C-alpha cells in the first residue's frame, strides 16, 4: 500500500454537450475540449481567443500608478545627461528586469549603468552601502527593478541627499512605503491597474513600453523568462506576453540566450515554457546563488558572440556547482527535519556554513517533501546571524506570518509564497513560536495534504503525439493555467528500471504492446521494488503528458506527479537461507515455527516477533509485516488476516523452508505397494541401522520413505517402537489417504506449491485474495 502524497481533487466534469461541440467545431481531441471547458471556455470563439490571444488583452502601461511621473523624471534625466543606475536583483526575474531596463535606457540615449546586488555582501533589495557607492560614482537617478518597496530604511536617507529614486516592483507592499520619487507597482493601494500579478520584468517592460511609446516586441524574450521564473499567474495579460516572448526566444536573436540554450542542450526552435522553467531560469538563478548575477545581465545584453559563449559556459559551471551544493545541504537539512515533531505545521531549519545561495532551493524541496511551509537558514562564522529563505504552500501566507514581527529580524522581504530574511540566532526559537502561532491564526493544518487537481482520467491508448501537440496549444502553463494532471490506472506495468548514478529515479512502461507509454518518475527510485510487486489493477498514477527529444526523435512520455497503491504491496523475497540482514526492516515478523521464532527474536525489537495466534489479533493497519517461514497449511496463512483488522501497508514474504515436501514429492501408489510387499515378508526391520539400505533397495529417498512408514503406522499396517518396525498380521482394510500423516503432507505439499513454487504475480494475487482484495 502506498498512500498518495497529495489530496487528489478531481475537477468536476464539464457539460458533455459543450465538450462535444468544441471537439467537433475545432477539430480537436475530446480531452483537449474538456480541458478548455474546465477553464470556462465554452465556445469556439472563446477558444480561439485563449489559444491565440490578441494584443487587446495587454493593458495600457500608463494605467500603472506613478507611471507618467516616472517617465517625466527619466526623460528629464536623459535630456540632462544625468547618470542613471538600474538597481536590480540577483534572481532570474531581477536579472531579466535589469537587462531590459538597462537596454531600453541605452536605446533612448541615457547615460546609464546597472548594479545587481551581491546576495552575500549586499543582501536582497536596497542596500545602504551599495546606494552610497552608486551615488559617490555620480548617479543622480536610481531606478529599482524587481525590488524597492520594502526599502524605506535605505531609500529615505538617499532621497534626503537629493537623489531621486524610482521604484518599480511587484513584491508585497508593506504598510510603510519608501519616500521615493515614484512607485510603479501593479498593486499600489488605491490604484486601478486591472491586473495585479505582473512580475518584476513585467513591470519593467511596461516602463519600457511607455518610455518608447511603442510596443517593444524584441524585449519580450526577457519578459517570458522572468515571468515564468518568478511563477506568476499565467493569466490575463501575462499569457500573451509570455507566448509572444517564447516566439522571440525561438528566433535566437539575442547572442547570450542563443549560447545559453546551446550550452544547455535544448532545441531553440521548439523551445517551450517548460524549457524556460526547468532549464533557462535555474541557470540564471545559479549565477545569483553562487557567482555574480551581473554576469547574467551582461550575458543577456551583449552583442559579442564570443563573449556570449564564454559567459554561457560560466553559467553552466555555476549551475553544476549549484546542483552539488543543493544535494549536500539537502542531506543535512533532512536529518534536522526528521528530528522535529511530525505534527509541527511550519518548519524552521538552521544549519551552519551552508551556502546561502541555495537555501531557497533546499527550502522548496523540503516543502515539496513534507507539504509544510519551510524556512532554511544558515549561520555565519561567528554564528550570531542566520540568513535564509522560506517557501510556502497554499493556505499559509508566509509574508503575512512574519511581516508583523520584523523586530525579530534584521532584514525581511517577500510575498505570500516565499521570503528572504536574516535574524539573530538567539531569536530562532522565538521565530519558531511565531510561525506556530501564525499557523493557528491562519487555521493552517500542517498534516493536511496539499491538493492536486486531476483534470481527467486517461488511458495509455489515449496518450499520443497528436494529443501532446494539441495540449501545447493551451500553454504556457503555470498558476492560473495549471498544466493538466491526469489520473491513469494501468492494466499493465513492465520494464521497471531505476536511473541516475544513485538509482534515485525511476522509469517504467504502462499499457499493452499496442499502446505502451514510458513513465518517468524523478526521485522515486525506491518505488521500483514496490511496483514490481504490486498488482497493476491496484495502482493509480497522477501524470503529466510530456515529450522526450533525443537525436531529433520526439516521443510522448508521462511524468509521474503522484502514485497511489490501494492494496498492500507484496514483496517477494523468498529464500532458503536466513541471515541477520533480512531482519533490519521495521515492522512485525511472523514465524510459524516456535523454535525459529525464538532464534530470530534477539535480532528484533521487543514485541515485533509474533506467533500466528498473536498475528491474528494484531492490527496491522499501515504496518509492514514479514512472513518469516512457510506454514504447514494454507489455512494457517489465511488465518493471519482472517479477522476484521486493517490490512498492512506491505507484506514481505521470506517463507523460509529448510526441507521441502514439494521437492521431495508425494509417493505414488506403486511405491506404497512395493514397500508394503517388502514389509509383510519380513519379521522386523531395524530402522536405525537399515533405513538407508531399505531406501536404496526400494529406490525411494529416505525422507519420503520415513513419511510412508508413518502412514503405514497410522493405518495399522506396522508398529514402530524404538526404531524397530514389525508388520501387523491382522490388518483392517484402511485407505492410507485418510490417515493423518498423509493428510498433513498433502496440506504441506499444497502450501508449498502455492507459497514457494508459484511465480511472484500468482503469489501476490493469492495473498491479496486472503485479504479479500481482488
From TrEMBL:
UniProt keyword Hydrolase present: yes
Residue ranges occupied by any DHHA1 domain in the UniProt entry: 345-435
Residue ranges constituting the DDH domain according to the UniProt record: 83-226
A molecular function (GO) term: 5'-3' exonuclease activity
Boundaries of every Single-stranded-DNA-specific exonuclease RecJ C-terminal domain copy: 570-767
Gene Ontology biological process terms in this record: DNA recombination; DNA repair
Pfam families per record: DHH, DHHA1, RecJ_OB, ssDNA-exonuc_C
Coiled coil (residue ranges): 308-335
Domain RecJ OB: 456-562
InterPro entries per the UniProt record, alphabetical: DDH_dom, DHH_sf, DHHA1_dom, RecJ, RecJ_C, RecJ_OB, SSDNA_exonuclease_RecJ
Keyword Mitochondrion listed: no
Annotated keywords: Coiled coil, Exonuclease, Hydrolase, Nuclease
Family membership noted in the UniProt record: Belongs to the RecJ family.
Record's protein name: Single-stranded-DNA-specific exonuclease RecJ
Biological source species: Limosilactobacillus vaginalis
This protein's encoding gene: recJ
Amino acid at each position: 500500500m502506498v498512500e498518495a502524497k497529495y489530496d487528489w481533487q478531481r475537477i468536476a466534469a464539464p457539460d458533455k454537450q459543450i465538450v462535444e461541440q468544441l471537439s467537433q467545431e475545432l477539430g480537436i481531441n475530446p480531452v483537449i475540449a474538456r480541458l478548455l471547458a474546465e477553464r470556462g471556455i465554452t465556445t469556439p470563439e472563446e477558444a480561439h481567443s485563449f489559444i491565440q490571444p490578441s494584443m487587446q488583452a495587454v493593458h495600457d502601461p500608463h494605467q500603472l500608478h506613478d507611471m507618467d511621473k516616472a517617465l517625466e523624471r527619466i526623460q528629464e534625466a536623459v535630456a540632462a545627461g544625468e547618470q542613471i543606475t538600474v538597481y536590480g536583483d540577483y534572481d532570474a526575474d531581477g536579472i531579466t528586469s535589469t537587462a531590459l531596463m538597462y537596454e531600453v535606457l541605452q536605446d533612448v540615449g541615457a547615460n546609464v549603468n546597472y548594479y545587481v546586488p551581491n546576495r552575500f555582501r549586499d543582501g536582497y533589495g536596497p542596500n545602504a552601502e551599495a546606494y552610497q557607492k552608486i551615488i559617490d560614482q555620480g548617479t543622480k537617478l536610481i531606478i529599482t527593478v524587481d525590488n524597492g518597496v520594502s526599502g524605506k530604511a535605505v531609500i529615505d536617507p538617499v532621497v534626503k541627499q537629493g537623489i531621486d529614486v524610482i521604484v518599480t516592483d511587484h513584491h508585497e507592499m508593506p504598510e510603510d512605503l519608501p519616500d521615493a520619487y515614484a512607485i510603479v507597482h501593479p498593486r499600489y493601494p488605491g490604484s486601478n491597474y486591472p491586473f495585479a500579478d505582473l512580475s518584476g520584468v513585467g513591470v519593467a517592460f511596461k516602463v519600457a513600453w511607455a518610455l518608447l511609446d511603442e510596443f517593444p516586441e524584441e524585449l519580450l524574450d526577457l519578459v517570458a523568462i522572468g515571468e515564468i521564473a518568478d511563477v506568476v499567474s499565467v493569466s490575463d495579460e501575462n499569457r500573451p506576453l509570455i507566448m509572444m516572448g517564447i516566439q522571440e526566444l525561438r528566433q535566437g536573436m539575442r547572442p547570450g540566450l542563443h549560447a545559453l540554450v546551446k550550452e544547455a542542450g535544448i532545441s531553440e526552435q521548439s523551445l517551450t515554457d517548460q524549457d524556460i522553467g526547468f532549464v533557462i531560469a535555474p541557470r540564471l538563478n545559479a549565477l545569483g546563488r553562487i557567482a555574480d548575477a551581473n554576469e547574467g545581465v551582461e550575458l543577456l545584453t551583449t552583442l559579442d558572440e564570443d563573449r556570449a559563449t564564454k559567459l554561457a559556459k560560466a553559467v553552466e559551471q555555476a549551475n553544476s556547482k549549484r546542483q552539488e551544493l543543493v544535494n549536500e545541504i539537502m542531506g543535512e537539512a533532512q536529518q534536522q527535519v526528521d528530528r522535529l515533531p511530525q505534527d509541527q505545521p511550519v518548519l524552521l531549519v538552521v544549519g551552519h556554513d551552508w551556502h546561502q545561495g541555495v537555501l531557497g532551493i533546499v527550502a522548496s524541496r523540503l516543502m515539496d517533501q513534507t507539504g509544510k511551509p519551510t524556512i532554511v537558514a544558515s549561520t555565519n562564522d561567528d554564528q550570531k546571524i542566520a540568513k535564509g529563505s522560506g517557501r510556502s504552500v497554499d493556505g499559509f501566507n508566509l509574508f503575512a506570518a512574519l511581516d508583523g514581527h520584523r523586530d525579530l529580524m534584521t532584514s525581511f522581504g517577500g510575498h505570500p509564497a516565499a521570503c528572504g530574511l536574516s535574524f539573530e540566532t538567539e531569536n530562532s526559537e522565538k521565530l519558531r513560536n511565531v510561525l506556530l502561532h501564525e499557523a493557528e491564526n491562519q487555521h493552517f493544518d500542517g498534516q493536511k495534504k496539499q491538493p492536486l487537481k486531476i483534470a481527467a482520467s486517461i488511458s495509455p491508448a489515449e496518450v499520443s503525439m497528436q494529443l501532446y501537440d494539441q495540449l501545447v496549444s493551451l500553454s504556457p502553463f503555470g498558476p492560473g493555467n495549471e498544466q493538466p494532471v491526469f489520473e491513469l490506472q494501468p492494466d499493465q506495468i513492465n520494464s521497471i528500471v531505476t536511473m541516475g548514478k544513485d538509482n534515485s529515479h525511476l522509469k517504467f512502461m504502462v499499457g499493452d504492446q499496442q499502446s505502451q507509454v514510458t513513465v518517468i518518475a524523478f526521485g522515486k527510485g525506491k518505488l521500483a521494488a514496490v511496483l514490481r510487486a504490486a498488482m497493476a489493477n491496484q495502482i493509480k498514477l497522477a501524470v503529466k503528458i510530456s515529450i522526450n527529444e533525443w537525436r531529433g526523435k520526439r516521443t510522448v512520455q508521462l511524468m509521474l506527479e503522484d502514485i497511489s497503491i490501494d492494496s498492500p504491496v507484496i514483496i517477494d523475497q523468498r529464500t532458503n537461507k536466513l541471515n541477520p540482514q533480512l531482519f533490519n526492516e521495521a515492522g512485525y515478523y511472523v514465524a510459524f515455527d516456535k523454535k525459529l521464532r525464538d532464534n530470530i527474536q534477539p535480532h528484533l525489537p521487543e514485541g515485533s516477533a509474533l506467533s500466528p495466534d498473536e498475528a491474528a489479533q494484531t492490527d496491522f493497519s499501515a504496518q509492514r509485516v514479514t512472513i518469516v517461514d512457510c506454514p504447514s497449511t494454507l489455512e494457517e496463512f489465511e488465518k493471519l488476516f482472517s479477522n476484521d483488522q486493517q490490512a498492512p501497508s506491505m507484506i514481505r514474504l521470506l517463507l523460509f523452508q529448510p526441507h521441502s515436501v514439494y521437492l521431495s514429492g508425494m509417493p505414488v501408489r506403486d511405491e506404497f505397494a512395493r514397500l508394503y510387499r517388502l514389509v509383510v515378508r519380513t519379521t522386523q526391520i531395524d530402522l536405525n541401522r537399515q533405513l538407508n539400505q531399505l531406501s536404496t533397495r526400494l529406490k525411494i529417498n529416505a525422507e519420503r520413505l520415513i513419511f510412508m512408514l508413518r502412514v503405514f503406522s497410522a493405518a495399522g499396517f506396522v508398529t514402530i517402537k524404538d526404531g524397530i518396525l514389525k508388520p501387523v498380521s491382522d490388518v483392517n482394510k484402511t485407505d492410507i489417504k485418510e490417515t493423518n500423516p498423509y493428510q498433513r503432507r498433502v496440506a504441506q505439499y499444497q502450501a508449498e506449491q502455492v507459497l514457494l513454487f508459484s511465480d511472484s504475480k500468482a503469489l501476490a494475487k493469492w495473498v491479496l485474495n486472503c485479504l479479500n482484495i481482488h
